Amino acid sequence: MKNSRLVVVGNGMVGQRFVDALRARDSEGRWRVTVLGEESRPAYDRVRLSALFDGVDADELNLHTPDPQVRLRLNTSVTAIDRARRVVTTTDAEYPYDALVLATGSDPFVPPIDGADLPGVFTYRTLDDLAAIRAHARGRRRGAVIGGGLLGLEAANALRLLGLATSVVEVAPRLMPLQVDTAGGALLRRYVEELGVACHLGVATTALHPGSDGTVAQLELADGSRMDADLVVVATGIRPRDELARAAGLPLGSQGGVLVDHTCRSADERIWAVGECAAVDDTCHGLVGPGYAMAETVADRLVGGAATVSEPDTATKLKLLGVDVASFGDAHGTTPGCLDVTFSDPATRVYAKLVLSDDAQTLLGGVLVGDADAYPTLRASVGQALPAAPLALLAPAGAGSGAAALPSSAQVCSCNAVTRADLDAAIADGATDVPALKACTRAGTSCGSCVPMLQQLLDAAGVGQSRGLCEHFDVSRQELFDLIRVREIRTFSSLIAEYGRGDGCDICKPVVASILASLGTGHLLDGERASLQDTNDHFLANLQRDGSYSVVPRIPGGEITPEKLIVLGEVARDFALYTKITGGQRIDLFGARVEQLPQIWRRLVDAGFESGHAYGKALRTVKSCVGSTWCRYGVQDSVGLAIALELRYRGLRAPHKMKSAVSGCARECAEARSKDFGIIATDAGWNLYVGGNGGFQPRHADLFATDLTTEALVRLVDRFLMYYIRTADRLQRTAAWIEAMDGGLEHLKAVIVDDSLGLCADLDAAMARHVGAYSDEWRDVLDDPALLGRFTSFVNAPEVPDPSIRFTAERGQRVPAGVGGTENRQPVGLGMPEVQR
Amino acid sequence: MTAQPQEWTVVCPLTRLDPGRGVAALVDGVQIALFRTANDLFAIDNQDPVTEAYVLSRGIVGSRDGVPTVASPLHKQAYDLRTGDCLDRPGVAVRRHEVRCQDGLVEVRLRKEE
User: Fold this and answer.
1) Which of A319-323, A640-644, B50-54, B83-87 bottoms out in mean pLDDT, i.e. has the lowest?
2) What is the C-alpha to C-alpha distance for residues A792 and B57, in angstroms, rounded to an integer?
3) For the CA atoms of chain B, what is the radius of gyration?
4) Percent of chain A topping pLDDT 90
5) Cβ distance A365 to A329 under 8 Å?
6) Is ipTM > 0.90 here?
7) What is the pLDDT of residue A834?
8) Which residue of B has its CA nearest to A509?
9) Can you tell me the distance from the alpha carbon of A623 to that of A506, in angstroms, rounded to the nearest whole number?
10) Chain A within 8 Å of B102 (Cβ-Cβ)?
């Protein structure tokens, strides 16, 4: 049985999921896998394509992790299947198979409209499509989308983000006709039109007309009207790609798609089909959830299992153009005798409908528009007795009654088909927190929307104590990080509205600000974000006991030219700042008032300095000894490495401040082992130590890897930092983080060296984004008059200095007098006789 | 001699205040901290009674059990913005002042003693 040949045609989301699922199950190495993909890049998250126009990088959508046991051929189109010889043919090769899985997906369906082939008319499915849309949109003003379904609204949002005046044309009388009912559609339309997207409903597009330059310029509608548009996206549906199966003589579904049974096997016992190209029960599904279920089923079958695909869950929850829309079960009430309960609140603009069985006891389906908080509980309750009275479920706080009321057969995580019974079993087996539940059941690892329910189930079982951040959030910092990252939440107000309560506080606000900064989502004083920052981050300086601030420019690696040193001296002298050399090999300037900060930084930035982030929970310094350049003992260039590392990680926000150091030989003059990550040179390269700190509980760092090349070292530090940033608790330093980790240092090695969680590509990409997006926070402030306006002591007297900040002299420099000042301090006199009075 | 009631002093346009953040203002030589929350305006002394530094306007605004609060940026004690009471140290409080918005302008009236 070993070394059977498995060929997978298609490397989309479902194809990739199938390969991952098979590899996870095939511990005996039964299958040698070859994947043939048509696109130029490996599998990516097509569901989130639109995020590309919201500042997300294409690499972030990547779903593929390299696997030495899987041969991946990209840019490879399969031309035929020879079932008799059991071979698939591409343009230049043949691939024999013992089993063949078709995961060819679908093509956009473009209706036969005159002019649909004009330049400027696009479909919306691949990264290439989006690149073409972006390129064509440049300099153009009006966009139109034909099709007002899920994909059409996604595309409309994309055009809007590209700055086009956007219209949607839909032949049905409402938006999202497959998911929502008439009343829900009407509310959705109001939301969408308020965003400036015009809706033309109940009207077909009959032709597209070119302008003088030959590209599309107008739409002609069935009512005879015409509409200007110099970019058109057609999003009217998809058609399964079944041409290979058709040519090979396999039976197809009545609407197309490879006809398969409940194991996803086609009429040929060696050929399987999964995802959008498969017709199970003669029905094709365009959602990724059913596709994933098929992928898991075939993977199980290929290692001897007996899985079958159950009734596919076509439930959908989306945030479209900022509006929550959810639809699940029998949303349109097609079950004979069923009853509707509707809830409509024009004030909060929420619409909800539940479809119940004729005895009003069983939930059959529903529609939510405007507020989908109740969605996870409701979707999991389909086919079950109602967990509470209908109105209680639909009222805004209804989600809270939540998971604890669910029956054990309810599916809590639909992405990964995890039921409450599965989760209860995992809890009984010792899972005490959400990460443990995720790890052993995979629940909550895809879209993340059920994560709050996982916590509710843990609470209901009475295990573990709350890991909630504060009274406003029941989830931990790590869970918040995942929610913000995966759900692409960008404001505190939307986060707390969806996952918290109240107005926030000095605990949760800075945590969210830090997470948003770690994700590289903009300047920390942008818009609402400014209000979340601690005063240090708010004024980009360190608050001192008297209400004044200190200023610390970055001096990478502690190396500084005489010219820059002179500038620091001149600035300190001109603003009469108390000057002290820090433990991190830089210079701290104290006693600045708020309105002086921009003046000081103007001088510093002009001289080539940038923020040292001494005010942030961020990388502080990478200290160094003088190294092999000068030192007669040094074996490597510790200063050069320290500078490179400090520049690479500058500005990186973290759960706690982070420090580093590089020593050029084993004498360790830079004290690298007292740092969060420390590096000590060896004859052969670098040794990396992690998890050290000074401070209240000093701790030496542990040896993590030896004799690394500079490149390998940087890769490990990249992953170490990103994994820490993603998973540590608030104010948890690296040492405590490693100690709290199940499996400790060995687990950390497995994750970031051996990639045991398949995270490394993601961590690497995240760091690459950070490095690429870095810009000096102080320079950004100086360039922005609105931000500069914040730097006054008094809003109604910007020219008045704060009179409470006063100084006295000590050892030739100014130190605080008066408020919070010297009165209570005793001067220190060493070697002097104590005077008795 | 009768005490004159304090006058209302225009401080700044409402738009100058970010929701969920404070600013300091100087009214008749008194440093006050002015806060705008989602629905309200609050004014208290800018001086942190615990450290005596004039910093309360720079604290993080939030809520505790539904009570609107500001946390001192120095040592994080929270103050009830409605009453001025310190929620973390019994007996400690800051003075409140009257604040209103008229025609888009924020106005403050000092309270001398309580």
Assistant:
1) A319-323
2) 12
3) 14
4) 55
5) yes
6) yes
7) 42
8) B60
9) 31
10) no
Inspect the interface and report whether the beta carbons of A796 and B26 lie closer than 8 Å. yes
Tokens read off for A723: 């994994």
The whole-number pLDDT of residue A397 equals 45
A619-773 folds as Sulfite Reductase Hemoprotein; domain 1 (3.30.413)
Q: Is A231's pLDDT higher than 90? A: yes
Q: Which residue has the higher pLDDT, A597 or A320?
A: A597
Q: Which CATH superfamily is domain B9-109 in?
A: Rieske [2Fe-2S] iron-sulphur domain (2.102.10.10)
| A785 has pLDDT over 80 | yes
Cβ–Cβ below 8 Å for A820 and B51: yes
**Any idea what the Cα angle at residue A389 is, between residues A386 and A395, rounded to 5°?**
115
CA distance A136 to A139: 8
Name the DSSP letter for residue B96.
E
pLDDT of residue A449: 66
Return the amino acid letter for A726: R
Phi, psi (5° rounding) for residue A44? -135, 170
Mutual angle of helices A13-25 and A288-302, in 10-degree steps: 30
The two three-digit tokens of residue B66, written as one number: 């539904």
Considering only A420-424, A576-580, A586-590, which range has the smallest mean pLDDT?
Answer: A420-424
- Beta strands, E only, A616-684: 619-624, 658-663, 677-682
Q: Is the dihedral of CA A793, A797, A800, A802 positive or negative?
A: negative
For residue A398, the model assigns a pLDDT of: 40
pTM for this entry = 0.55
Altogether, the residues listed in chain B come to a count of: 114
Mean pLDDT of A211-226: 93
Cβ pair A148, A169 in contact under 8 A: yes
Residue ranges of domains in chain A: 4-107+240-302, 121-236, 477-533, 619-773
Does A505 contact B78 at a Cβ distance shorter than 8 Å?
yes
Q: What is the largest CA-CA distance in chain B?
A: 45
CA distance A526 to B3: 46
Listed by start position, the domains of chain B span: 9-109
With cut-offs at 50, 70 and 90, classify the pLDDT of residue A319. Answer: low
pLDDT digits (tens, 9 = 90+) for A420-445: 888 888 888 878 777 778 777 888 76
Q: Which architecture, in CATH terms, is A121-236?
A: 3-Layer(bba) Sandwich (3.50)
**Which amino acid is residue A515, in one-letter code?**
I
> pLDDT at position A744, please?
85
Residues A328, A379: Cα–Cα separation, whole Å = 6
Say whether B24 and A547 touch across the interface (CB within 8 A): no
> Residue A321's pLDDT is what?
67
Least confident of A100-104, A522-526, B20-24: A522-526
The answer to whether A469 faces chain B, any CB pair under 8 Å, is no
Establish how many alpha carbons lie within 13 A of residue A373's alpha carbon, considering only the half-sphere containing its beta carbon: 21
User: Residue type at A594?
Assistant: V
Nearest alpha carbon to residue A91 among A36, A43, A34: A36
Partner residue opposite B25 with nearest CB, options A471, A506, A794: A794
CA separation for the pair A703, A689 (Å, rounded): 4
Domain over A4-107+240-302 is classified CATH 3.50.50.60: yes
pLDDT of A56 > 80? The answer is no
On the question of a common fold for A121-236 and A619-773, the answer reads: no
Ranked by mean pLDDT, the top range of A335-349, A429-443, A592-606 is A592-606
CA of B19 to nearest chain A CA: how many angstroms apart?
7
CB nearest to A534's CB, from B37, B73, B78:
B73
The chain-wide mean pLDDT, for chain A, equals 88
A503 CB neighbours in chain B (<8 A) are: 20, 37-38, 61-63, 68
Residue A750 is classified by DSSP as: H
Cβ separation A502–B63 shorter than 8 A: yes
